[in-house]
Input
Amino acid sequence: MIDIDQYFCTNEQCKCYGLRSQGNLIKAGTYIKQGETKQMFKCKICGSRFSETRNTIFFNSHYDSATIGKIIRCIAEGNGVRATARILGLSKDAVNAVVLKAGQHADEMMCNLLRNLHLTECQMDELWNFINKKNAIRRGFGT
Ligand SMILES: [Zn+2]
Output
């Protein structure tokens, strides 16, 4: 069952943008993507419609949530990008893309991620350490 209070309007112009439990969202049909049924929501304030996967790392990803889940778990267990790619039989670039995308979805999005993947707090800590280290390297520090 979808808990509508876990979602928020994704329209940046809306006064309810990013806010949960405002009573502004209604369910607005479903669609099927890669064999999984996805819920659509509509915001009663601004009228915008969006998918349950909007504002999660699953949005616009060409991997299904199971594959992304495996990547995140693998990284969270302390494996590097190269090892994760090898374990899952994916390209290093693909793993990189998912990890970096996960890193861009901080704070608000972590709740969605946690709920979808059922990661433990410890696994999340390791994931963030990894992402922070990786971002530091990208900025030219830590190498
Ligand atoms: Zn809205």
Observations:
- The chain has two domains: 4-51, 65-138.
- The chain has a mean pLDDT of 78.
- Residues 65-138 form one domain.
- The longest strand covers residues 25-33.
